[in-house]
Amino acid sequence: MPQLPAPDYPADVRARLDADAAEVVARYPDSRSALLPLLHLVQSEEGYVTRTGMRFCAETLGLTTAEVTAVATFYTMYRRKPSGDYQVGVCTNTLCAVMGGDAIYEELKEHLGVGGGADDTTEDGKVTLEHIECNAACDFAPVVMVNWEFFDNQTPESAKRLVDDLRAGRTVEPTRGAPLCTYKETARILAGFPDPRPGAVEATGGAGPASLIGLRLAKGEAAPARVVHPRGEAARDTAPRDEPQPGSGHLSSHDAPQRTSASDPANPSGPVTEEGE
């Protein structure tokens, strides 16, 4: 049986979306490049991408509904069914999993009384639980994200408190980044519209200290590493990485021959001479 055409938005909603879509499309030299933000825009209207939303995108951009559907079904940030005000995603990729992500997901599933697949939203419509792929926050594993805001270094207990606060309407502060908002509000921001909430513009989602230690080392801002000699000698400071070892002829000491070798106490090597003697 052929599928019925998707209904249109009510006149007032359509007029508002037309105005917003015109603003989005004007940012791009080719109108079809606006498809991703337009999908976020229609998602902000109903909390997921409906057939009506896809029809709107197609008509606005001069695309077929098949072209729009192909994009909407490819990216996981576009929802295809009603979901909660708060998308609680537990990272279960390798590092987060071994650090406890799998345990967090299983305990949240039981705590919230949700299953997998289509049965992943609480009865009150507040929380949708899902697995998420790596969100480049491995230094803070295991990570939980709520509407794409970070909650770092989670445990099953802290994650359960988090979802309880969300369902009770209590204020929840992400570990870093912008203040938390609902999924519809998040979708509108992702469509490219400014966040009107006080303080949201000033908030930043920068990396934390654990992620920035490599940059600090490269700039010489961190103290040199400490090395303990395997034969029990006192700890000594290593030479900075960006300074060549005397006589090595290398720009970096990373791969330069060292004066002595202590890597294998059972088979020590002799000193390295200046001219390879």
Defining traits:
Glutaredoxin; two-stranded antiparallel ribbon; four-stranded mixed β-sheet; globular; 277 residues; Arc Repressor Mutant, subunit A; 8 helices; alpha+beta
Write the layout of secondary structure elements.
Blueprint: H1 11-25, H2 35-46, H3 51-61, H4 65-72, E1 86-91, H5 94-112, E2 127-132, E3 144-146, E4 149-151, H6 156-168, H7 183-190, H8 209-218, E5 226-227, E6 236-237
Parallel strand pairs: 1-2
Antiparallel strand pairs: 1-3, 3-4, 5-6
Give a summary of the structure in a few sentences:
With 277 residues, the protein is an alpha+beta fold. It has helices at 11-25, 35-46, 51-61, 65-72, 94-112, 156-168, 183-190, 209-218; strands at 86-91, 127-132, 144-146, 149-151, 226-227, 236-237.
Describe the structure.
The protein has 8 helices and 6 strands; from the N terminus they run H-H-H-H-E-H-E-E-E-H-H-H-E-E. Among the domains are: 62 residues, Arc Repressor Mutant, subunit A; 98 residues, 3-Layer(aba) Sandwich (Glutaredoxin), CATH 3.40.30. Helix 5 links the parallel strand 1 and strand 2. It is globular and about 75 Å long. The chain has 277 residues and is an alpha+beta fold. The protein has a 4-stranded mixed sheet with strand order 2-1-3-4. Strands 5-6 form a two-stranded antiparallel ribbon. About 9% of the residues have low confidence.
